[in-house]
Amino acid sequence: MENGEVWLKGAKALLPETVTLRRKIHEHPELGLHLPKTVAAVREALDGLDVKIEHGPSSSGMIVTLQGPTQGRTVLLRGDMDALPMPEDTDLPFKSKEAGRMHACGHDAHTAMLAGAVKLLHANRARLAGTVKFMFQPGEEGYFGAVKMIEDGLIDRHPKPDGAFAMHITPNVPSGMFTSKAGAMMAATDVINIKVSGKGGHASQPHFAVDPMPVACEIVLALQSFVTRKISAFDPVVLTIAKIDGGTTNNVIPETVNLVGTLRSVSEHSRKRAKEGLTHVAKKIAEAHEARAEVTLTPGYDVTINDGRMVDLAAATVRDMFGERGFMTMPSPVMGAEDWSYVLQRIPGCMVFLGVAPEGCDHHHAAPCHSNKMMLDEDAMANGVALYAAVAERFLEQGLPAR
After folding, report:
1. 124 and 34 assigned to the same domain
2. What pLDDT digit, counting tens, does each position of 347-385 carry?
3. Domain end call among 245, 274, 299
4. Which of 22, 263, 275, 366 has its CA at 20 to 30 Å from residue 376's CA atom?
5. What DSSP element (H or E) covers 277?
6. Are 389 and 7 in contact (CB under 8 A)?
7. Coil, strand, or helix at residue 65?
8. Nearest to residue 77, comparing CAs of 283, 286, 386?
């Protein structure tokens, strides 16, 4: 496809700049909602372009607007910018220089690819039948950065986007390949805290105490049975108790034990059912042992639900540029979570995954996102820059296809 060749050739020409920006951001990862170094690097990369740049009051969120020669539709392209609070254990020459911080989820690549897309589309702005907004988002890793940008009015500001498109890298897909699906693509997430209270005492005389430890252990096992017996296998949840904290020494029965975990779900129905059920199970098991369970559920991100029409548009665009094997339909959702979900609640759109399996590494065995050893094939970023641009052009020309 001629259009696809234009975007891919341009993206490959920009690849050295894209890699340089990615490495610069990777060396100095920042956490949360305020990312001054990252924003400065992006603004420097975009210096001299005829674009409008807007910031909100609550975070480092930034919208870059590129107007084509004609009025028409508006499309929103997104890349997130924040890192994770974890050490990096790689031998990369540009590894993190910030202790306890790492771009282990690929947001450095997302940011660099989106900046590359700004440059590429700006150089070819005569082809644009409308407006492109680029959403550089902070605080994806649990800080509700997308919500902050929505609340700041950055997303809905005129011209409001008619469609939205995001990309996320994954080392566990072959390099350069894209994958997505209509409907639920990523899970909702909720944090589970259960405090089991009993009566402390001497470990040699448990009959004089109410030992919360076996009660807590029974709750953990019962919750796994609850999930398999009460939640439909076709509307699944994942419930994991990841931390048990209680006790001080070997001969003291503690007063309390704390359980911490996560609940992942792919529909609001199963999410509600699981939250109600796990609370009931924990409380009733504790009561049966004359103990008490206090359950606190802290809401995380909602289910990320892709509009099938935008998935179809993205898939067709990929296949035009890279052939039939360039796009693979995901067989099922993944249980990670994304605050892109809140944008998709307001604007029809989707997210796709871009495979970045490192050269010489089977994607099945590559260190995944959130690993301290995660690495990626930087050459694949050219495919990402090209797809951002091609999706924008096609959406502005055609809008959402019928299903």
Report:
1. yes
2. 999 999 999 999 999 999 999 999 999 999 999 999 999
3. 299
4. 263
5. helix 268-288
6. yes
7. strand
8. 386
Residue 251: CATH number of its domain: 3.30.70.360
| Residues contacting residue 9 through CB under 8 Å, at least 6 positions apart | none
Mean pLDDT of the chain: 97
Asked if the structure places residue 172 within a domain, the reply is yes
For the chain, the C-alpha Rg in angstroms (whole number) is: 24
Q: For residue 26, what are its two tokens?
A: 């990777």
Express each pLDDT in 229-242 by its tens digit: 999 999 999 999 99
CB atoms closer than 10 angstroms to residue 290? 10
Note whether 280 and 349 are same-domain residues.
Answer: no
Tell me: the pLDDT tens digits for 182-221?
Answer: 999 999 999 999 999 999 999 999 999 999 999 999 999 9
pLDDT at 374: 98
Matching residue, tokens 């910031």: 55
403 part of a folded domain: no
* Residue where a domain terminates, one of 282, 299, 316: 299
378 is catalytic: yes
Domain identity same for 174 and 64: yes
Residue located via tokens 């005129």: 158
If asked whether residues 289 and 346 sit together in one domain, one would say no
How many structural domains compose the chain? 2
Structure tokens at 288: 């049966």
Q: For residue 113, is it within any domain?
A: yes
**Whether residue 11 sits in one domain with residue 101:** yes
The residue from 140, 301, 388, 393 that is catalytic is 301
| 255, 190 Cβ separation under 8 angstroms | no
Q: Is 301 in the active site?
A: yes
Residue 2 has pLDDT above 70, yes or no: no
Residue 276 belongs to domain spanning: 188-299
Whole-prediction pTM: 0.94
The residue type of 268 is E
